[in-house]
Design brief:
The complex is a heterodimer.
Chain A (H helix, E strand, L loop, with lengths): L4 H27 L26 E6 L2 E9 L2 E3 L2 E4 L3 E8 L5 E4 L6 E4 L5 E7 L3 E6 L12 E6 L1
Parallel strand pairs in A: 2-5, 4-10
Antiparallel strand pairs in A: 1-2, 2-3, 5-8, 6-7, 9-10
Chain B lengths: L12 H32 L11 H32 L6 H26 L17 H31 L7 H32 L8 H34 L7 H14 L16 H13 L1 H21 L7 H4 L6 H24 L1 H7 L3 H31 L5 H31 L14 H4 L2 H30 L26 H25 L12
Helix pairs in contact in B: 1-2, 1-3, 1-13, 1-16, 2-3, 2-4, 2-13, 3-4, 4-5, 5-6, 5-7, 6-7, 6-9, 6-13, 7-9, 7-17, 11-13, 11-14, 13-14, 13-16, 14-16
The structure holds copper (II) ion.
């Protein structure tokens, strides 16, 4: 099979760039600990409201600067509906669904993951700037999907 | 059979009738889908409200199913069957014709079932039908018929290929046929997982025979199919680029063996990659996700090969026509010929589309755009622009070939206008979508300001740009259907050439490229490696299943 000389150069540059890019992705994910949200914990989706800590969703304070937020995403809302944390706080979100698949996204941050019935998914974010952050559902979940949102207030 | 009395037809009557039947169902679906798409844009832009008897998610389902599944699949089967007929001597033999018609009937019945359930609002589950949203069982059965029907289109291609090889021992098959076979091999293998999902998970569960469903497994099986589906759309467009476009501009295939190698690579690397659609999901470990990310990114290589081949053909042809200097050849290309212009604009769209694809596939960057309207913008410039513009460009000559008519200069000019409208509409709409997605605006969401949250209110202007782009696209869609109707029924009779280019000189293509057992073996191995363990895990360590929900 004959490869044109320019094509060889083109493919070597392309494949080389690609290889470098892949190495950077691996370093980013595994050495710097920025792998995508891939929580492996499971839960019975029909018993979410009886299973702690999701029987009583809300903020649990770990320290002055760190909180766990246990939340449920359901058609068509989030529980709890209002949360307030001080600026500079790191919040670890743990979210599950008692019904269909939902999304969990905070625009302006890198918090963005799927909430699947049967699984608990999580992500952390440190809220440096005060404000009212929008949390929305970004996976179609039914007729009221567009109203499915809540806020987290950072003071 | 020779048709001496009416000149040399490129494709004989029975084969032409079969292809045309596919292509017209494709464009009927396209017209309805375009209407649904335009209405969605208007709702999202806050310009109209839908009447109470329908809703946004119902027309969103209609748009997705009709455009992404029905328009594409019907067009692809029709186009590839016509090209196989043309390049194997001008006709399909009896077996292939029979298989082709069985496929058409199954697909059309499946389409009707899907459309009826969507219209009665029993299937507002979007075209990805994610469990535990439960549609009417007839919706899933319709989808299954559509897929199984398309397999018969593939069997028709395989049977023509086998016949050709028997009659031409030792020779390389025509490039068009080889590429069609590769496309359908990909399609057949890729649809097995979704067939398993639909037959063994969704249908029994939606009929109430089973009470719960393993959601993780259903999503994995869906995306096992869902990414190669993208290549099933793309490869026929590549066939038009590799084989048809060079002939239209008066040139040759740049390299037969590299074209075949690109197709084999697409076949191998488009399959074991589905987890890159599930990067933000729980229940799959980061290691497996990374393996799929790496395999996904390797598809960049055959894309680079294709880009090189295309521009090499353009340059050689332009220079032969007297183009001098670094870019003089560029001016020699037939810019006013819609058969070239439409697919060329499609290729241009594919450049940013490829870059966007790398973002989506890359682990951490995906977190910024996942499920935002950026994704919608991305696949509108891949499928909606690169692929669709190529299919339009093909239709402008294919329909005259099949009906024994000609593309008149006026129809050509109207086609140019149509291409410009479609491109500008797509550019504005998808630009706005990419921008909004980066701001965090979600996809698949009806009009909302999230209780007047300032962030969401700030998105409104761009949503209006989306709506305006959608309006232009609808005008272009109507215009296209008018032109194609004219080419089917009213254009002057005459012989139109079916453009298929050859290589310039005798080329020795390595025989290995046509040894299917080798490639199928490698492909199965890759799939077992990439999916075997994670699926075994999902079958054993799975949470209690989910009951069905109807949330619309
Ligand atoms: Cu939701």
């Amino acid at each position: 099979m004959h490869l044109h000389r320019y094509e060889k150069i083109w493919l070597i540059l392309g494949a080389g760039g690609l290889a470098l890019f892949i190495v950077l992705l691996c370093v980013n994910a595994f050495a710097m600990g920025m792998a995508p949200p891939s929580n492996m914990e499971m839960i019975d989706p029909t018993k979410v409201s009886e299973t702690p800590p999701f029987d009583n969703p809300g903020l649990k304070k770990i320290s002055d600067t760190e909180y766990d937020a246990y939340m449920t995403a359901f058609a068509f809302g989030f529980n709890p509906n209002k949360m307030e944390v001080p600026a500079g706080a790191k919040v670890n979100f743990h979210v599950t669904s008692p019904d269909v698949v939902h999304g969990f996204q905070i625009p302006g941050t890198n918090v963005n993951f799927m909430v699947m019935p049967g699984h608990i998914n999580s992500a952390s974010y440190t809220f440096e700037k005060p404000g009212e952050y929008l949390i929305l559902c970004n996976e179609y979940c039914g007729a009221g999907h567009q109203v499915m949102a809540t806020t987290i207030i950072v003071k | 059979m020779m048709q001496t009395h009416m000149g040399k037809a490129q494709v004989d009557r029975p084969s032409a009738r079969l292809s045309l039947a596919y292509i017209w169902v494709a464009y009927a679906a396209f017209g309805l889908a375009a209407l649904a798409g335009m209405l969605q844009g208007m709702v999202r832009g806050g310009l109209i409200e839908l009447p109470s008897w329908t809703n946004y998610y119902q027309i969103l389902t209609a748009h997705g199913v009709l455009m992404a599944l029905i328009f594409t699949t019907f067009f692809i089967v029709g186009f590839l069957l016509s090209g196989v007929a043309k390049t194997t001597g001008g006709s399909l033999h009896g077996t292939a014709l029979g298989l082709g018609w069985i496929g058409w009937i199954l697909m059309t019945v499946g389409t009707a079932m899907a459309v009826v359930t969507i219209v009665t609002n029993d299937a507002s589950v979007l075209y990805t039908f994610y469990a535990p949203l439960k549609a009417s069982p007839f919706f899933y059965i319709g989808a299954a018929l559509l897929v199984v029907g398309s397999w018969f289109g593939g069997f028709a291609v395989f049977s023509s290929y086998r016949k050709w090889r028997r009659e031409n021992r030792g020779k390389m098959s025509p490039l068009f046929v080889f590429m069609s076979v590769t496309t359908f091999v990909l399609w057949l293998i890729a649809t097995i997982p979704v067939a398993v999902e639909v037959l063994f998970q969704l249908i029994p569960w939606s009929l109430g025979w089973t009470s719960s469903i393993n959601i993780m497994l259903s999503r994995t099986l869906f995306w096992f199919f869902g990414h190669p589906l993208v290549y099933f759309w793309l490869m026929p467009a590549y066939i038009a680029w590799y084989v048809c476009v060079p002939r239209i501009i008066g040139g040759h295939v740049f390299s037969d063996s590299l074209a075949r190698l690109a197709f084999i690579s697409l076949l191998l690397f488009s399959m074991p990659v589905g987890f890159h659609h599930q990067l933000m999901e729980p229940g799959i470990s980061p290691g497996w996700k990374m393996i799929h990310v790496i395999l996904t990114l390797i598809v960049v290589v055959p894309s680079l090969m294709t880009a090189f081949s295309m521009f090499a053909t353009f340059e050689t042809t332009g220079r032969k026509k007297g183009g001098v200097g670094l870019f003089g050849w560029f001016k020699k290309l037939p810019w006013s010929d819609v058969r070239f212009f439409a697919p060329f604009v499609g290729m241009l769209f594919f450049i940013p589309a490829g870059a966007g694809g790398i973002i989506n596939a890359s682990n951490q960057m995906n977190a910024v755009v996942h499920n935002t309207i950026f994704i919608t913008g991305h696949f509108h410039i891949t499928v909606g622009a690169a692929v669709a513009l190529t299919f339009f460009g093909v239709s402008f000559w294919l329909i005259p070939v099949l009906t024994g008519r000609t593309l008149t200069p006026t129809a050509n000019r109207m086609g140019m206008v149509q291409t410009v409208f479609w491109s500008v509409g797509m550019f504005l709409m998808s630009y706005a979508m990419h921008y909004l997605g980066l701001q965090g605006s979600p996809r698949r969401t009806s009009f909302t300001t999230y209780m007047d949250h300032p962030l969401a209110v700030g998105w409104l202007d761009y949503q209006r740009v989306m709506a305006f782009g959608g309006g232009l696209l609808f005008v272009a869609a109507i215009l296209l259907i008018l032109i194609l109707g004219y080419l089917t029924f009213f254009a002057p009779k005459g012989n139109t050439e079916y453009p298929t280019a050859e290589t310039e000189t005798e080329q020795h293509t390595p025989k290995i490229l046509e040894r299917w057992p080798v490639w199928l073996g490698v492909l199965v191995l890759l799939c077992v490696l990439a999916y075997g363990l994670p699926i075994a895990e999902q079958l054993t360590h799975n949470p209690p299943g989910s009951p069905p929900f109807r949330t619309w």
